[in-house]
Amino acid sequence: MAREKKFSTDDIYLQTHNLLIKEGYEKFSFSLLAKSLKVSRAAIYKYYTNKDELISDYLVGQMKQMMEEFNQINWSLDYSDRFDQLFELIFKYREAHLISNALPHDKMIISTEKQKQKETVSGEVHGQFFNYIQQFIQTGKTNGHIKKDIPDSLIVGIIFHSINIPDRSNLSSQERAYFIKMIIKNGVFDISK
Fold this sequence. Notes:
The model has no long low-confidence stretch (mean pLDDT 91). The chain is mostly helical. The protein has a domain at 75-186. The chain has helices spanning 9-23, 30-37, 41-45, 51-72, 79-92, 94-102, 112-142, 152-161, 173-186. The longest helix has 31 residues, at 112-142. The termini are far apart.
């Protein structure tokens, strides 16, 4: 009997991410995952009972990782640079956010325990990010960096939902992030004319 190839949960999460981006939730299966990891399906079942539990754990892991990075950033004192840091972090986790948005959350089969864990982590992440962005916007308005008449909720929505803009360009991910960030910061009009 041949020995099973060794792999880690990080390997599983990486391939899960890649397959969900490439194939989508409906086509994602343990068969595809096993093939991409070059292992048997049985090897994956040692870790997870179904794809929904795996996807849930993957997303919780992404949220935790993003918050670790958020908490470890050496935030710039320059307001514009701090916005760049925030936007780059949000954009770095763009694909995980897109995966989460594409899932049929109401139809997914996950344990009550995992559901509570996901909701707890999601609440903490969104709460911490929302609070930081609210403070960031208020500081920007107070110091004249952001127009005071633009509603905070609209600014937050534009920042967070900019990652959902469909990619119809031939730009790299970094180029797209740069131009979207510049549009948010400066608009599209050339005010020098």
